[in-house]
Amino acid sequence: MNDFPLAKAFTLLEPGPVVLVTTSDGHRHNVMTITWTMVMDFTPRFAITTGPWNHSYAALEKSGECVIAVPTVDLIDTVLAVGTCSGADVDKFEKFALTAVAARHVRAPLIQECLANIECKVVDIVQQHNIVVLDGLAAYVDDARKEKRTLHAVGDGRFIVDGRTVNKRELMGNRLPPGV
């Protein structure tokens, strides 16, 4: 084993997936790129990291709702561009030709171009760590979409693209929670 810079240790654990998070402040929709996400247990509870430095954060905090949209590798340039400009200055849906689709349970829109969308409500904000905890309300997947490979941020400008799936469910036996 060789020494590795501790300041870059997060790149060893950073799994992604990279997501787009949409919000609505009641007047305008916005979208931000988030590279830190987490599934909490075997439930529709998720966490993202964001804070007041992101324009969308005020709408997320005020409305208490958002949509997590899961883009695929063919959208990487759009995903990066969304993350490098502010919704305070530009309408990102218009600028990046993203199609906002009305959600059923929240005011924030789904993104038609994404593989999947999850409508969420905020259940906690852990300000000390800039973690927003979300409960999923509804989930949608575009099974007809040809590209299904998602992006995973390494954290230093590199990305990993999903590849082949290895199914080892039979080895898990009855250790999986019911319904999984």
From TrEMBL:
**Protein family:** Belongs to the flavoredoxin family.
Stretches assigned to the Flavin reductase like domain:
12-161
What are its cofactors?
A: FMN
Q: Give the species this sequence originates from.
A: Rubrivivax gelatinosus
Q: What is the protein name stated in its UniProt record?
A: Flavin reductase
- Keyword annotations for this protein? Flavoprotein
